[in-house]
Design goal:
Helix content is 68%, strand content 0%. 0% of the residues are buried. The protein is an all-alpha fold. GO terms for molecular function: protein transmembrane transporter activity.
Length: 157
């Protein structure tokens, strides 16, 4: 890479001032700046594209390894399943038909789960009114205006 220090930049600026002249130097500097910016953006775009292609290649390799591992697992499971099926068929073939068939026990059935909060209205209604009044349980719903009127502080005259 080109090593541009402060002294070299000052020398380039002095030569540009002499060759181009003070009237055109700002316009030329602006043009050079925009061209350098465009070149920098182009280089960054190329770098990003190269990085994306490298990541894509890595993802493809990873995908291939995962697929091969899945195929290996599938083949091992298929081999195990065929071994079990073969053993089952051998056991079924060797089964003597004169032996009584063992009865299978039916698992006990459990009652269906029911949410205990289903009958909360009945439970609330079973509470005596004197108990509700003593403990502050609301028996009626108040509208917003009624609640404001009930709890508004009293004016002392």
């Amino acid at each position: 890479m080109i090593d541009l220090g402060i002294s070299k930049m000052a020398l380039i600026g002095a030569v540009a001032l002499i060759v181009i002249g003070p009237e055109k130097l700002p316009r030329v500097a602006r043009t050079v700046g925009t061209l350098l910016g465009k070149a920098q953006r182009y280089v960054n775009d190329v770098k990003a594209e190269v990085n994306r292609s490298m990541e894509l290649d890595e993802l493809r390799k990873m995908k291939d390894t995962v697929e091969s591992a899945a195929r290996d697992v599938e083949s091992s499971i298929g081999g195990t399943a065929s071994d079990i099926e073969r053993e089952f068929n051998e056991a079924a073939a060797s089964f003597d038909s004169t032996d009584p068939v063992p009865s299978l026990e039916v698992p006990p059935s459990y009652p269906e789960y029911r949410n205990p909060r289903k009958k909360w209205r009945i439970k609330q209604g079973a509470m005596p009114n004197w108990y509700k009044a003593r403990n502050g349980v609301r028996t009626r719903a108040l509208s917003g205006a009624a609640r404001v009127a009930r709890y508004r502080p009293k004016k002392f005259n």
